Amino acid sequence: MSQPPPTQAKILIVGAGPTGLATAVSLIKHGIAVHDIVVVDSVLSGQNTSRAVVIHSATIEALESIGCFAKLDAAGIRMQEMRVQDGNGSPFLVNDFSSLHPYTKFPYACIISQAHTELELNRELEALGGQVFRPLKAVGMKPVGNGLQVSFETGQIITAQYVIAADGARSVIRSVAGISFVDPQGLDREKSGDPRISQIILADITFDSSLDHIFPVDPYTGALSICPDGLFLTFPLAHPKVQSTLYGATEPIYRIGFSVHLTKGEAPSHPGLEVLQKYVDGHGPPVLSSDPSRNPNKPVHLKKVYWSTRFRTHSAIADTFFRRIRGDTEQENGGVVMLVGDAAHIHPPIGGQGMNLGLRDAIGLGATVAKHIQSKDANNDSNLQMLQDFAKERHEKASKQIVMTKRFAWFVGSLMNPWSIPYWVVYVMGNISFFKKMLVWQLSGLGNR
Questions:
Q1: Where is the chain membrane-spanning (predicted)?
Q2: CATH classification of 8-188+315-444 is 3.50.50.60, yes or no?
Q3: pLDDT tens digits along 215-234
């Protein structure tokens, strides 16, 4: 950290992932002075993990509203269709994003690494005169006078009227504010997901041969392979002109993702080349296998691993996204805590919905908090209704999103058993145009902006 942050701020944003950065940019674009905002993060730049890789239509619209999508669009890949196929690589459902054309001027999904999204949002914040103070890990919070005093591991203290928790699923701010975070159906972590797909490995890798004939970049196509062992996702990560930005790579990088059944034990937290190759050969599509018995025409080997991670999936939502925290006396009005992104809600990763809803939350939160600050009665408790109403609305949308992602998880689970009735129901529905359009519509977020 080159310089300490201010000790006083109107707004303190804890967490500088996509949602924290988007909230800061939105606040500034809606008229809040840069010097009134302090953004902190617990890790140094570049030490965060990159999970999300897709920006859907509704999120694209939100990013465009604050002038933050043009560069992402130029750096990313416009996904035209997504194939769902069986373990042998035979497609039985093709999602065509062009069906969104009547409803948005962005009838596609933008494929781009979350790390690159953060990079561009941080550049925008810096261009507006802001910065992120790192590393500052929050450890406590208490009301003082007309604000909230947040303390950090370093011993530093920042007092703010508004504290925005964008510090992830293990949010310290949410915890010290006394806000619960549980599965909406009351399920515990071990029971909140299908054991076949609740342990996921993601990796950014290169292959020893070109896959352009399998996964063309333009028009862009990705594939989700489903077999009895689990799911396997493959697609190009970025155009060659931008892939060097993150990794210094000169060859195409692909994102692969696959499930590991919990009965097989806990997978390595950061699997290397040998482990990933074993998984790819075991239940990846035959065209990606290095095993000549599965891929006799042209065995394909993983060449280099740039990044990998393993994580468990489950659903949870905070019981409220807004809390007023008062002091012990009538003179201590305290301050306001609002939750955004993973601090507010988490979902199964199927459909790439988590970061998308979080970004829409963040951009809307920036506009709402700015409007509240700029109102004549910002310090009047009755005027907090504006923030409460926004929090309630976003809570409803998050609840709806969790239901949808659980439904998608069931959908994927059904396809893992080709002898089940649900499999054939889904297979038949996959050939119905209306069903395919509804699936794309739900993925796009346009019905849940």
A1: 408-429
A2: yes
A3: 666 666 677 777 777 788 88
